[in-house]
Amino acid sequence: MTDPGAPWHAHIYYDPAERAVAATLRDALATDAAILFVGTMTDGAAGPHPVAQYEVHFLGRNRPAVVAAIEATGLRALVHPLTDDDLADHTTLAQWIGEPVILDVTVLDPPGVNQGIPRFGISDF
């Protein structure tokens, strides 16, 4: 996944004690012109993510900066591309920052069908 114009996601995880740090990072990312979309903080399970998290959308060219910003906070995150294989995106193509979270992969789209972009409110990068 080296296409600088390809869409990527980061799922930033937090527990109650980390919520303020996660909110500060979310606010910073929301004002960054390189970020395409910042989702709302979800304080419970959502989709394959069993813990509190929010999602950030960006292009591949901005991945190093996004990863660095997340790493600087000490929060856990899953960073992955958006391809036509939702399962691979969340597993074999993904990068974990910090301790991985066990995902519920049964809710992901089958290979060849990835509704990730429209499902999360962004239809055109």
Main sheet: strands, sense, barrel: 5 strands, antiparallel
Known CATH architecture: 2-Layer Sandwich
* Helix count from the secondary structure assignment: 4
H-E order: EHEEHEHEH
* Largest sheet: spatial strand order: 2-3-1-4-5
The shape, in one word, is globular
What is the class in the CATH system?
Alpha Beta
> Termini, distance in Å?
16 Å
The whole-number mean of residue pLDDT values reads: 87
Q: What share of residues is helical?
A: 25-40%
Please tell me how large the radius of gyration is.
13 Å
- CATH-defined fold name: Alpha-Beta Plaits
Q: Can you walk me through this structure?
A:
There is one protein chain. With about 120 residues, this protein is of the alpha+beta class. The protein has a single domain (about 5-120), classed as 2-Layer Sandwich (Alpha-Beta Plaits). The protein has 4 helices and 5 strands; from the N terminus they run βαββαβαβα. Helix 1 packs antiparallel against helix 2 (about 65-75). It is globular, with a radius of gyration of 13 Å. Mean pLDDT is about 85; it is low at about 120-125.
